[in-house]
Amino acid sequence: MPAELGPVRVRRVPGLRAAELAAAWDRLAAEALEENPFFTAAYMLAGLRHLNERSVPDLLCVERAPIDGGAALLIGVLPLEMARFRYGVPLPLGVAASHVFQTSGTPLLHRDHAADAADALLGALCRDPAVRGRALLPHLRLAGATARLLGERAGPAGLRSATLCDLR
């Protein structure tokens, strides 16, 4: 019988410590609402070791704790860089990790806990004083289930969502 699950929490894991999450992260990627090979542990960890310390993104991790006190279930991951400037103006915001050869910036949300994971990620972005509720998700697959879910849940979380560029 599966463990009864408890509350959801969000924690920011420094990218340099991301390897600690590899096993749970792999399980999440295998059970994600939408796959994104660019946000898997293997892909991200391979790239992180080549970045200088200031360029390493943090991971916003959403976990659901079991009531019985066992290991938490990782239900969401968003690699997030903190930007102080964007488009040449001072504009603090969170930017989902990306590069020119990456074709998806879709966060990993567990398919059985996607709504709770989305609410937790959006809430964390709203409350984070470093980003003040502003985030960019480059290469988010707009026709996908994750983008639809985030769009539906942004308003209730106190966020406004907008598509800046649709490259379909």
Describe the overall structure.
- With 168 residues, the protein is an alpha+beta fold.
- 24% of the residues lie in helices and 26% in strands.
- The protein contains four helices and six strands; from the N terminus they run E-H-H-E-E-E-E-H-E-H.
- Strands 1, 2, 3, 4, 5 and 6 form a six-stranded mixed β-sheet that branches.
- The longest helix is centred in the C-terminal third of the chain and has 14 residues.
- The chain is globular.
- The N and C termini lie far apart (44 Å).
The residue-averaged pLDDT reads: 84
* Helix content percent band: 10-25%
Return the structural class: alpha+beta
State the order of secondary-structure elements, H for helix, E for strand.
Answer: EHHEEEEHEH
Distance, first to last CA: 44 Å
Beta strand count = 6
DSSP strand (E) fraction? 25-35%
| Structural Rg | 15 Å
**What would the principal axes of the Cα set say about the shape?**
globular
Number of distinct helices: 4
Biggest sheet details: 6 strands, mixed
Low-pLDDT residue intervals, each spanning 5 or more residues: none
